[in-house]
Amino acid sequence: MYKGIGGSAGIGIGKVMLIVEQSLDFTPKTVSDTDAELQRYRNAVSKFCQNTEQQAEQLKESAGEKEAEIIMGHILMIQDPYMNSEIENSIKGGSCAEQALTDICNMFITVFSSADDELTQQRATDVKDIKNAVLSILLGIEEQNISDAPKGTIIVAKDLTPSMTAGINKDNVVGIITEVGGKTSHSAILARALEIPAVLSVQNITSLLKDGDTVIVDGSDGIAIANPGEDEILNYSEKRNAYLKEKAELAKFIGKATATKDGNSVELVGNIGTPEDANKVLECDGEGIGLFRTEFLFMDRDKTPTEEEQFETYKKVALIMKDKPVIIRTLDVGGDKDIPYLGLSKEDNPFMGFRAVRYCLKNIDLYRTQLRALLRASAYGEIKIMIPLVVDVEELRSVKAIIKELMAELDGESIKYNKDIQVGVMIETPAASLIADILAKEADFFSIGTNDLTGYTMCVDRGNADVAYLYSPFQPAVLRSIKHIIECANRENIMVGMCGEAAADPMLIPLLISFGLNEFSVSATSVLATRKEISKWSKEDADKVASAVMEMDSVAEITTYLQSI
Ligand code: PEP
Ligand code: MG
Q1: Residue 502 and which of 161, 182, 412, 558 are 20 to 30 A apart at CA?
Q2: Distance between CA atoms of 320 and 418, rounded to whole angstroms?
Q3: Looking at the predicted structure, is the pLDDT value of residue 124 above 90?
């Protein structure tokens, strides 16, 4: 079994077609007739543009408009005045076209690959694709044709260039395995658009498999199985059929409003950790962002991100989501989320310690920087600010006071922001739940963090296997807490959502509908399944289930009942 990254979900079983990388080696030479060499280069570029346009047309048919635009972007890149003039100047200086192209492209590849963000890194791959395609034309090398791959083909390649993908017949190609590429690489995006299961970043796979080998590609779990036994084939065929059935079911919910069976609308939004995740939420038809965990922005680096960096990140999410709501949670550090350079001291009980809003209010410069960045970004979309781990209304008041000061500061500098920006709190502690009536009078919205609320209510460490049996949102204590929080919010007419994992739990959904939850915030991949579950319940039926459950006294009784309905 080979492990890689699941780039496109689903299961494919078929026979390998190995794409052999053609050598693009050449002998560099100095040219004397630079005009003729320049012409040779320009001819190659125009051939490249012609080919790319053709491939874009094919892709438009097979994958869609957006995917075709990805490769049309390559034409803009090769025609970029700076890149093009650098290459042409090098040829005018006597380099052969192959060398000039390689040198300049490599320079761009180095710059782009050293960037921190995945999108810029992706541009390095784009330049590499362009370089290889133009080099092939200059060297007269034909790319292996995969458009006539027979039915049941699994493409195995070092990398899948967009031009290769354009030629794929999605009725015949049932899987893709590559040695490079991540979830957001173009090969992954295109494979997803073509709905072909893909496993990427499998080391040495082009040397491990040969033409004609039978392979199972499990793009959901990111594994490939070579020469499987009969049992494995049977098992994966069943898995594939179940996957396809569920997918067809869920597809019916794309573009539909999220509403109960009797037509009560609720919001269905996504949880994200990076701006790029916002695209995923949109792809999955999410209606906004219910939780952006900003701590990921502070991790894997050695100092806090600047106001400018944070502003750009928050603005990016706002722009991606256009006028859809985007709830951004301020830094939730501490507990299980360690950020070494922040210098948090070792605590005996970090979950009860100096964390989240407690830390931020004591490290005011850091907090002001984040809140200022959030306010500035609010000029670009529907950003709302959310405070984690609130236990005391004074915390909400303090944050609101800082925001007010910062607004005056921004007014003085004539910087735009949303003057009516909403400030809400996460309800994820028993204290917040017990004072939900007080908090609801001063917060603009609630979001219930069941991951922590369950842990703190049950006095169970989220990660401790010995007490995991107690960690359940179906504990009567947790259910009563959730019901109470929702009632307090509804009484004050403020929006109440849930961004803990439980929001996507099909067994909890009828209870949440009955209690009156307004917003479900789930991972992108759970959006459609959650919409489907919500659509199954009328308020009346959900109320019946909820009244029965709220009379029960144990998790076992509750879950047995919920599983049976
Ligand atoms: C929660 O506690 O439910 C929550 C959504 O926050 P996190 O998982 O980031 O602690
Ligand atoms: Mg939490």
Answers
A1: 182
A2: 18
A3: no
- 258 C-alpha to ligand 2 centroid (Å): 25
Q: Is 186 a catalytic residue?
A: yes
> Which candidate, 185, 54, 55, places its Cα nearest to that of 128?
185
Q: Which of 399, 478, 493 is nearest to 437 (CA)?
A: 493
Cα of 254 to ligand 2 centre, how many Å?
29
Residue 57: per-residue pLDDT: 87
Taking CB atoms and a 6 Å cutoff, what residues make up the pocket around ligand 1? 291, 293, 332, 428, 449-452, 499-500
Q: 333: pLDDT confidence band, cut at 50, 70 and 90?
A: very high
Instruction: Report which protein residue has its CA nearest ligand 1's atom 6.
Output: 449
Burial 374-396 (b: 16+ CB within 10 A, else e): bbbbbebbbbbbbbbbbbbbebb
Under the banding of pLDDT at 50, 70 and 90, the label for residue 194 is confident
Model's pTM, two decimal places?
Answer: 0.76
- In terms of phi and psi (left: phi > 0; alpha: psi -120 to 50; beta: otherwise), the region of 493 is left
Instruction: Tally Cβ neighbours within 10 Å of residue 118.
Output: 14
Q: Give mean pLDDT, residues 275-295.
A: 94
Q: Which of 96, 186, 360, 488 is an active site residue?
A: 186
Contact 390, 432 (CB under 8 A): yes
pLDDT confidence band for 142 (50 / 70 / 90): confident
In what helix (H) or strand (E) does residue 217 lie, and over which residues does it extend?
strand 214-218
Number of H helices, E strands in the chain: 23, 16
The DSSP 8-state label assigned to residue 73 in this structure reads H
What the block records as the tokens of 393 is 């209304």
Does position 164 have pLDDT exceeding 90, yes or no?
A: no
Nearest atom in ligand 1 to 449's CA: 3
Mean pLDDT across the chain, nearest whole number? 93
| Spacing, Cα 321 to ligand 2 middle (Å) | 23
Mapped onto helix, strand or coil, the DSSP state of residue 78 is helix
Residue 337 CA to ligand 2 centre (angstroms): 10
What average pLDDT does this structure show over 180-192? Answer: 78
Do 81 and 104 meet the contact criterion of CB atoms below 8 Å apart? no
Active site residue 74: no
- 379: pLDDT strictly greater than 90: yes
Residue ranges of domains in the chain, CATH in brackets: 2-13+146-236 (3.50.30.10), 34-139 (1.10.274.10), 267-564 (3.20.20.60)
CA-based torsion, 458, 340, 367, 385: positive or negative: negative
144 vs 100: which has the higher pLDDT: 100
Residue 538 φ then ψ, to 5°: -95, 160
498: left (phi over 0), alpha (psi -120 to 50) or beta: beta
Which residue of 339, 428, 496 sits with most ligand 1 atoms within 8 Å of its CB, as the best mutation to test the pocket?
428
